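Request from the bench team (R.T.):
"We need a structural guess for the complex before ordering more NAP. Sequence and SMILES attached. Just send the tokens back."

Command: build protein-NAP structure.
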Amino acid sequence: MKALITGAGGQLATELLASPPTGWSVEAISEIDLDIRDLEAVRVAVARSAPDLILNAAAYTAVDRAETESEIAWSVNRDGAANLARAATEIGARIAHVSTDFVFDGQTSRAYLPGDAPAPLGVYGASKLAGEIAVAAEAPGALILRTAWVYSPHGGNFLKTMLRVMAARGTVSVVADQIGTPTSATTLAEALWGLAVAGASGVHHHTDAGVASWYDFAQAIGEDGHAAGLLERAPVVTPIATEAYPTPARRPAFSVLDKTSTWNILGRPSPHWRSAMREVISRMPVSS
Ligand SMILES: NC(=O)c1ccc[n+]([C@@H]2O[C@H](COP(=O)([O-])OP(=O)(O)OC[C@H]3O[C@@H](n4cnc5c(N)ncnc54)[C@H](OP(=O)(O)O)[C@@H]3O)[C@@H](O)[C@H]2O)c1
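Reply to R.T.: structure attached below.
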């Protein structure tokens, strides 16, 4: 069996490439070689690759910039996803697409189920929701996996930003009133492969287990980064309110995702976010 992975070079694609299941070969294609916004280019690339499965890890992920670059966000996250789904259907391949907790508005206090009504607060979430709808329309058997707060040793993410700021300043203020779940790109890749190989379709959720605020996440990064030798000294992390750190895009105050359907298909729960984070930190070079 063969999988074609888009968005090569991104956090998720890198981990997907590193962990193909037994019996699968993978081809990864980066934005330079395939801009998913170009339907004809997508058709040619998909027909040439002839995969059994497309794993779409390509996305416009700049949540704040999306507010002013909305055309790019919509064209990548909605139209690009739709192009891949259409090309998959045309050659009889399946497609697994990745979406986000930011399709929800956070106005709840229980974990979001896959069937809960979405209500995105910003352009990024709206464009990702439109991508979900477009993919399902073009490829009715598609797998759509929502995730959240993704980090890895590569690419730009909160974990690496915190380590950089903590190393430079020794102190950082982080919002404590937005609640979600940090998620290792490694466990996300494992879940996506597992669901895809199991033939899952429809909308499912994957994050690591547990809940945290961005402040909790930062505090843990400081403690575990120091313990692992990535930080010379333990940083001081100060909790602040969202109002004290205004951003162009509004974010949900609570975006914990219910993972029951994913855990039932995979036959196991996700690891707790703190142990998944320690595993990622253990792979990071001490000099970074
Ligand atoms: N990161 C998070 O916290 C988070 C949270 C929830 C959901 N997700 C979702 O999880 C998935 C994977 O995210 P990630 O963190 O791995 O993202 P990422 O590291 O930003 O990688 C996205 C990749 O997509 C590529 N790309 C962008 N525009 C493209 C285009 N027009 N054609 C082809 N490739 C294009 C990017 O290439 P360039 O770098 O060259 O532009 C990059 O390699 C995405 O669907 C994202 O929406 C992420």
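Two things stood out. The first helix runs from residue 11 to 18. The pocket of NAP is lined by residues 6-7, 9-12, 31, 34-37, 57-61, 76, 80, 98, 100, 128, 147-150, 155 (CB under 6 Å).
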